[in-house]
Amino acid sequence: MDKIVIENFSIRYSDGVESLRNISLSIPANAVTVLFGPAGGGKSTLLRAINRLNDLADVKETSGRILFNGQNILDPKVDVVELRRKIGMVFSRPVVLPMSIYQNVSYPLELMGEKRKSRLDEAVEKALKRAVLWDEVYDRLHDPATAISGGQQQRLCLARVFALEPEVIMLDEPTSALDPVSTARIEGLMHEIKEEFTIVWVPHNVQQAARMADYAAFFLQGELIEYAEGKKLFVNPKDQRTSDYVTGRFG
Amino acid sequence: MADATLVSSPRRTQEWVINLIIKLSGYSSILFVTLIFIFLMREGLPALRNVPLSSILGERWYPIEGYFSILPLIYGSLVVTVGALLLAIPFGVGTSVFLSEIAPPWMNQIIKPLIEILAGLPSVVLGFLGIQVAAPYLRRLLDLPTGLSAFSGAVLLALIATPTIVSITEDALNTVPSGYRQAALALGATRWQVIWGVTVPAARSGILTAVMLGVGRSIGETMAVMMVTGNAPVLPSGWDFLFTPVRTMTATIASEMGEVANGSTHYQVLFFIGIVLFVISLVVNIVASSVSLRGRTRAERVLS
């Protein structure tokens, strides 16, 4: 089943930087779809279009459609807040909010109006366990979140997304600021839970793309060059440019 | 003599001289503050010897007959300053939130220079406005005997303190990493929730510094308050205290200094008021800098 369907989507910023041209792509549920390619190819732009974070940027024009569960999310009538609760996002640098560990996870629930302490406690514990962080922080939940390590912070960001119980999780180079051990942890974690979510992953290198991809889309300068199952695309790319990039001839 | 080049050269001397000049200008600030402090103490402290404490902490300021109570003056400064801050903080912080979080860039380009102009207006000019516009209006509106009151002073001071609060608060808000805003938005926060729950708390220490500097600015202001507060150094008698005339410490010094005999008791008491002001602004500055230092160490922890 396709969770997100992108149809002839184009976007251009006012300053002309990093735009997307005529992208069509179907992102299946319960799998990891990897968007990869050299920097400036438009991968982050696409993620930000899907959860409408692009609303903040200086966008000149967009065209095409992005369907989420069959509904066009580019429609101005769409409730953006509700959309972002269903499509969680993790950024490349761990962005913990300047509050305690506990509050970081309970914050999105409090935004939804949940005030009951017992519910919040329960949800925080569940989300932290899910992000395999609980054992490391359960005895200092009320310490500032900035006191934990970078890898832990990134898992805290994941826990925060889990707390919302979203349908889609988008990760924009989530391990680019992390050490190899933390990277392996997060990759393993996403691998385990992919059956329950739709995961869209922008990796920060080709190796990670190859490791993670159930499906892979290769972006080059704002165009989707090739989209296929991960196994096919990395072993036997159809397009010469994909082949060159995957084998390390450029990029 | 190959070593000679290593020992000394004109450039080295030049370097040394420049170094010395820079050092001296740095140290001079310490010297000046110390000299001012000593001067204030020398002129003002004898007041404590010549005027009984019961008079200094009495109820009346009437120097000609020997009543030297500074309480009405401290009260005057306090009520005007606190009133000004109650108006200026919400207004100033609101303006900066608008500028840094909501207003489009072109609007920023219009509003910011205007605020800078407001900051640069001589307070005497604002005093004119207070006397000619605000005070008569207030008198008619509330049916008071005079519009020259603590409230008029507070409004005017609020106008004077606001630019300070706005510019520093806005700086603080701008240094909040944009990642915080995006992360909160991505979690389904509305714009208001982001501002109230993330951006403003993250800029807390900067905002506190802004407020403290606003306090300093208003407590030290002389001209405008002298023009619009009615200049009656009395303690309030009832609940209408906001709308009765008061006189601040600064206004007292400014208006009476020219008339006292050098070295008289009255002269000493005026200097003693100066000491009180000095101590108050010292405390405000210390609190402000300790707050902002705490903010910095927290930021360092975030970065490490």
UniProtKB/TrEMBL annotation, chain A:
<dbReference type="GO" id="GO:0035435">
    <property type="term" value="P:phosphate ion transmembrane transport"/>
</dbReference>
<dbReference type="GO" id="GO:0016887">
    <property type="term" value="F:ATP hydrolysis activity"/>
</dbReference>
<keyword id="KW-0067">ATP-binding</keyword>
<dbReference type="InterPro" id="IPR005670">
    <property type="entry name" value="PstB-like"/>
</dbReference>
<keyword id="KW-0813">Transport</keyword>
<dbReference type="InterPro" id="IPR017871">
    <property type="entry name" value="ABC_transporter-like_CS"/>
</dbReference>
<dbReference type="GO" id="GO:0016020">
    <property type="term" value="C:membrane"/>
</dbReference>
<feature type="domain" description="ABC transporter">
    <location>
        <begin position="4"/>
        <end position="246"/>
    </location>
</feature>
<dbReference type="GO" id="GO:0005315">
    <property type="term" value="F:phosphate transmembrane transporter activity"/>
</dbReference>
<dbReference type="InterPro" id="IPR027417">
    <property type="entry name" value="P-loop_NTPase"/>
</dbReference>
<dbReference type="GO" id="GO:0005524">
    <property type="term" value="F:ATP binding"/>
</dbReference>
<dbReference type="Pfam" id="PF00005">
    <property type="entry name" value="ABC_tran"/>
</dbReference>
<keyword id="KW-0547">Nucleotide-binding</keyword>
<protein>
    <submittedName>
        <fullName>Phosphate ABC transporter ATP-binding protein</fullName>
    </submittedName>
</protein>
<dbReference type="InterPro" id="IPR003439">
    <property type="entry name" value="ABC_transporter-like_ATP-bd"/>
</dbReference>
<dbReference type="InterPro" id="IPR003593">
    <property type="entry name" value="AAA+_ATPase"/>
</dbReference>
TrEMBL record, chain B:
<feature type="transmembrane region" description="Helical">
    <location>
        <begin position="267"/>
        <end position="288"/>
    </location>
</feature>
<comment type="function">
    <text>Part of the binding-protein-dependent transport system for phosphate; probably responsible for the translocation of the substrate across the membrane.</text>
</comment>
<dbReference type="InterPro" id="IPR051124">
    <property type="entry name" value="Phosphate_Transport_Permease"/>
</dbReference>
<protein>
    <recommendedName>
        <fullName>Phosphate transport system permease protein</fullName>
    </recommendedName>
</protein>
<dbReference type="GO" id="GO:0005315">
    <property type="term" value="F:phosphate transmembrane transporter activity"/>
</dbReference>
<keyword id="KW-0813">Transport</keyword>
<feature type="transmembrane region" description="Helical">
    <location>
        <begin position="113"/>
        <end position="135"/>
    </location>
</feature>
<keyword id="KW-0812">Transmembrane</keyword>
<keyword id="KW-1133">Transmembrane helix</keyword>
<keyword id="KW-0472">Membrane</keyword>
<feature type="domain" description="ABC transmembrane type-1">
    <location>
        <begin position="74"/>
        <end position="288"/>
    </location>
</feature>
<feature type="transmembrane region" description="Helical">
    <location>
        <begin position="70"/>
        <end position="93"/>
    </location>
</feature>
<feature type="transmembrane region" description="Helical">
    <location>
        <begin position="20"/>
        <end position="40"/>
    </location>
</feature>
<keyword id="KW-0592">Phosphate transport</keyword>
<dbReference type="InterPro" id="IPR035906">
    <property type="entry name" value="MetI-like_sf"/>
</dbReference>
<comment type="similarity">
    <text>Belongs to the binding-protein-dependent transport system permease family. CysTW subfamily.</text>
</comment>
<dbReference type="Pfam" id="PF00528">
    <property type="entry name" value="BPD_transp_1"/>
</dbReference>
<dbReference type="GO" id="GO:0006817">
    <property type="term" value="P:phosphate ion transport"/>
</dbReference>
<feature type="transmembrane region" description="Helical">
    <location>
        <begin position="147"/>
        <end position="168"/>
    </location>
</feature>
<dbReference type="InterPro" id="IPR011864">
    <property type="entry name" value="Phosphate_PstC"/>
</dbReference>
<dbReference type="GO" id="GO:0005886">
    <property type="term" value="C:plasma membrane"/>
</dbReference>
<keyword id="KW-1003">Cell membrane</keyword>
